[in-house]
Design a protein that fits this description.
The complex is a heterodimer.
Chain A: H1 2-43, E1 46-51, E2 54-59, H2 63-69, H3 74-78, H4 86-108, H5 114-137, H6 146-172, H7 179-191, H8 194-204, H9 213-218, H10 230-259, H11 263-270, H12 275-302, H13 307-313, H14 324-333, H15 337-369
Antiparallel strand pairs in A: 1-2
Chain B: H1 2-23, E1 50-56, E2 59-65, E3 81-87, H2 93-107, E4 110-116, H3 118-130, E5 138-141, H4 146-150, H5 175-181, E6 183-184, E7 187-188, E8 190-192, E9 199-203, H6 214-224, E10 237-240, H7 250-261, H8 285-297, H9 310-318, E11 322-327, H10 331-334, E12 347-350, E13 357-360, E14 365-368, E15 386-387, E16 393-396, H11 403-414, H12 416-422, H13 435-439, H14 442-446, H15 451-465, E17 471-472, H16 479-495, H17 501-519, H18 521-532
Parallel strand pairs in B: 3-4, 3-5, 10-11, 15-17
Antiparallel strand pairs in B: 1-2, 5-16, 6-7, 8-16, 9-11, 9-12, 13-14
The chains are: A mainly alpha, B alpha/beta.
Chain lengths: ~375, ~525
């Protein structure tokens, strides 16, 4: 009897030990993450006004969201829409079509669940909707809002940063002289505070004075301005962002390249494969799992870009470089905390949908196929 | 068995820590009074006499005043720290930081100046006060924001303190800055540290007669655009007016528009109609013309003008690269600084250009100036000098535990002895606001200005200050949203070519109306009208 009681007590201790040990950390995380999320959701449903004795928060329901999506701020947020160009129609057809194909593949796959179907439908609607927004606002008659500007920063930035990071990692994974030195040097931009990077590029993009002036003078560009042209300003922001965050891609991909097995590559060389064939059929498939993870992490961070557009251009010229976070920050400065929280929550929804769609659809598929 | 005992022990340990953190009683505080002998050496403070101007029987008279020492008790505030929040600058923060050690020597109070970017100052201060954090004992801020700070009771009422303070010399401050910048709904909440008007500056070696109208300003700027104005062989610029979004640029469109919009005197107002609170920055010929002029001026400066803040445009003007500029009073003293200026004694200042046509508010059309439409016109031109911003002022947190020390510091900064010097230094960002600043040329000459330049500079400010058609800056609840968010964004989009003129006017009108309706139209109208009267 006492042996059974002892075993039972021991089992209970075993079962309880796990959650008791992690409970303090869970409570702290919940308090610091979930509680502010709930409070900011409430804040997005109110309006702040200063009255005698202090301030009052008036419940306005979904009015702050209404202003952004269909009301007085919808052009600033979603952009000015116009009929797509021919290229725009083709791109939209490609995006929407790909969603239909993916949905069809899933339905024919046999293993259908309610959650999976709903998730894929939401992702399909979101991707198609965002594609429609992009093609109707990024054209000569339209104008991108802060949603589209943020999406441009994220996706163009990811392509550039991944490409550059992979290229640098490939170089540094080879036995070239100075590779250890350059490994450290390539990491330095990531160590600098984003505000410092922004001020650096503010000086570099000044064509009338500053450290880069001799270069601008050499090319006869002293009377041009990057930052007073919409796409020039966006390019300046993306170049600064790429300069700062390519090292992150570089270091992770370098680790992935250096950890791959050497035997398949040696065998391929013996079989007469050239460099491109080795990369295409051996190296790249081996680093796909790591690549998809690092892209997911960087994508989530990229949506929150604020330092560069804030310091470099203050969101200008006009609102050409204003990201969603800067949009929320700008109206928060005037203490429109309800409007600011609404922008932040819509950003959260956007990141969650895109991140979840990427993780569940693309990343799973890529890692499964390798 | 040992493993289970270890687990059980660990479990008990964790639970003990958790319970201990929750249940540990606060140790009893043991109070013991200790006598400490402190010998404070007497502090000899000598304050040189200062010339001040008092209004005696309606006439300004200059007399010498020997101010009493700032404090009768040495180390009056020993051990006290006063946290003062203001703008990064370097202007505005510079004189506070420079004089803080002097004030500490006199009184023992340590002054800790905290700075934030201008666009963050409003929310930083209001968030601190409204959440009860109260990190800051005093602010040096924009008096336009007074409605949002005074209404909830965040500011100390200084009405009874200011006239009796021997250091401050309240009556020596020009009435406009006492009665408008420092006062809200009949109570004094602020101590003026600066006087603000927009003016036009011009290169007096290039331009003999400064522009009297905005059309003349544009013509002159076009004549000088692309010419070498400082002898370095590079093409320079006709006009350098800051147009950067999110900086302090949104006041400059008002300086242009006011000449067309307001002509019947200060009480007419230049932002809204005084009967229905409808925005005047909308679909009418006056604002349309102002936008045309502003857009043209954006093409007559450096290539980065849309990204240049006032710091950049001041630097361009004082380095001799601009024929014209518009700014607060800072360029005057900056132009005589031998360390940075290449245009010493080559700068003139003049009241803001006006217009020969003004808005008929009933029809929305521009009509020619005559005795009825422009009763305050000078040579047929309606000038509407803009008291933009109102001048940096110091206010005290009503919840501060060191209010007296904070007040004494702000009074010290505003006192004639200090302010007479600070307003002559371009790096301070403080511009003239005391009668003595205008009447006594001594400090200006000592700063390096010639007598001619000083009279010209001060004369331009006085012309603005004395104008019966002066435009008061907007000072209604949440004016920050009207100007820094809505107006600034729309103008930035217009200058960048994102939106056309019609869309700009509609956007400002619609968004201003939406904000007014959100806050209560009647309430906003009452607040607007009360500020136009400039009544205590």
């Amino acid at each position: 009897m006492s042996a059974r009681a002892s075993v039972s007590l021991s089992d209970r201790l075993d079962r309880a030990a796990g959650w008791v040990f992690i409970m303090p950390a869970v409570v702290v995380v919940l308090f610091l993450s979930i509680f502010p999320l709930i409070v900011s959701l409430y804040i997005s449903l109110v309006r702040l006004q200063f009255v005698a004795g202090g301030f009052e928060l008036t419940f306005v329901g979904l009015f702050n969201y209404y202003k952004l999506l269909v009301g007085i701020d919808h052009v600033h947020f979603l952009g000015l829409q116009a009929s797509p160009t021919l290229v725009g129609w083709l791109l939209f057809a490609l995006a929407a079509g790909s969603q239909v194909v993916l949905l069809g593949v899933y339905l024919r796959g046999g293993r259908i669940s309610i959650g999976g179907l709903i998730g894929r439908l939401v992702a399909a609607i979101a991707v198609s909707g965002l594609a429609w927004l992009l093609v109707t606002t990024i054209n000569p008659e339209g104008r991108p809002g802060t949603v589209e500007v943020t999406l441009i920063y994220v996706f163009v930035g990811l392509v550039v940063q991944y490409g550059l990071g992979l290229g640098l990692a490939m170089l540094c994974s080879q036995h070239l002289p100075g590779r250890r030195f350059f490994r450290v040097v390539f990491l330095l931009p990531m160590m600098i505070t984003p505000v410092g990077v922004a001020y650096l590029f503010l000086m570099l993009t000044d064509t009338t004075k500053g450290p880069a002036y001799p270069l601008w003078a050499l090319f006869g560009l002293v009377n041009t301005s990057w930052v007073t042209n919409a796409w020039g300003a966006r390019a300046a922001v993306m170049i600064g962002d790429a300069w700062q965050w390519t090292p992150f891609m570089f270091i992770v991909l370098l680790a992935a390249l250096e950890s791959q097995s050497i035997e398949p590559i040696e065998a391929a060389i013996v079989d007469g494969a050239n460099g491109w064939q080795i990369f295409r059929h051996i190296t790249f498939p081996a680093i796909v799992p790591v690549s998809s993870t690092v892209i997911l992490i960087r994508m989530i961070e990229a949506f929150k870009i604020v330092d560069l557009p804030n310091i470099l251009t203050n969101g200008g010229p006009g609102t050409a470089t204003e990201s969603l976070t800067l949009h929320a920050f700008s109206i928060w400065r005037a203490l429109d905390i309800g409007g600011s929280a609404a922008v932040a929550y819509l950003l959260l929804i956007l990141v969650t949908v895109i991140g979840a769609a990427y993780a569940n659809l693309i990343r799973t598929r890529l890692t499964r196929d390798t | 068995m040992k493993r289970h005992l270890f687990k059980a022990f660990g479990l008990v340990l964790v639970l003990s820590f958790a319970l201990g953190a929750c249940a540990t009683p606060t140790p009893a505080t043991i109070v013991q009074t200790v006598q400490v002998q402190v010998t404070v050496p007497p502090v000899q403070v000598t304050v040189p006499p200062v010339e001040v101007t008092r209004i005696v029987a309606g006439t300004p008279q200059t007399i010498q005043v020997t101010a009493p020492p700032p404090t009768a008790v040495p180390n009056k505030y020993a051990g006290v720290t006063v946290n003062v929040l203001t703008f990064t600058g370097p202007q505005i923060a510079e004189p506070l930081q420079r004089r803080a050690p002097d004030f500490e020597k006199l009184t023992g109070a340590k002054i800790n100046v905290v700075t934030v970017p201008f666009s963050d100052l409003y929310q930083k201060a209001l968030t601190d006060f409204s959440t009860g954090t109260n990190s800051y004992d005093a602010l040096v801020f924009d008096p336009q924001w007074m409605a949002d700070f005074a209404t909830p009771g965040y500011l100390e009422d200084l009405t009874s303190k200011v006239p009796n303070d021997p250091v401050l010399d309240w009556n020596g401050i020009a009435p406009f800055f006492r009665d408008f910048s420092a006062t809200y709904q009949g109570k004094v909440y602020a101590i003026p540290l600066d006087g603000d008007f927009h003016m036009v500056y011009y290169r007096s070696d290039l331009i003999q007669t400064p522009p009297a109208t905005w059309d003349e300003y544009v013509t002159m700027a076009q004549q000088f655009q692309g010419k070498d104005l400082n002898g370095d062989g590079k093409p320079d610029y006709g006009s350098c007016i800051s147009m950067k979004r999110g900086a302090q640029s949104y006041w400059f469109i008002t300086s242009v528009a006011s000449a067309f919009i307001q002509s019947q005197g200060t009480a007419q107002g230049a932002f809204f109609t005084t009967d229905t609170m409808q925005p005047l920055y909308g679909n009418n010929e006056a604002f349309s013309k102002a936008l045309d002029i502003y857009k043209t001026l954006s093409t007559l400066g450096p290539p980065d003008l849309l990204n240049d803040d006032v710091g950049a445009t001041r630097g361009l003007f004082t380095s001799g690269r601009c024929a014209l500029s518009m700014d607060w009073g800072d360029i005057g003293p900056l132009a005589v600084d031998p360390a940075t200026s290449k245009v010493q004694d080559k700068v003139g200042a003049v009241i803001l250009p006006g217009s020969k046509e003004v808005l008929d508010r009933a029809t929305g059309k521009l009509v020619p100036c005559d005795a009825k439409t422009c009763p305050y016109a000078i040579n047929g031109i309606n000038h509407a000098p803009y008291a933009s911003y109102g001048g940096w002022t110091g206010v005290i947190n009503n919840a501060s535990k060191v209010k007296d020390a904070a007040f004494d510091f702000l009074a010290y900064m505003s006192a004639p002895a200090q302010s007479s010097v600070d307003v002559t230094l371009g790096k301070t960002g403080f511009n003239p606001y005391r009668l003595a600043h205008f009447q006594n040329l001594g400090p200006w000459l000592a700063s390096g200005m010639s007598e001619k330049a000083a009279r010209n500079y001060l004369g331009a400010i006085e012309d603005s200050l004395n104008s019966p058609n002066m435009v008061l800056d907007l000072r209604i609840p949440q004016n920050q949203a009207y100007q820094q968010v809505i107006l600034d964004t729309a103008i930035a989009q217009f200058l960048a070519g994102e939106i056309d003129k019609a869309t700009t006017m509609k956007q400002i009108t619609d968004q201003w109306n939406a904000k007014t309706d959100e806050l209560g139209r009647d309430k906003q109208l009452a607040a607007y009208k009360s500020t136009l009267g400039v009544t205590k």
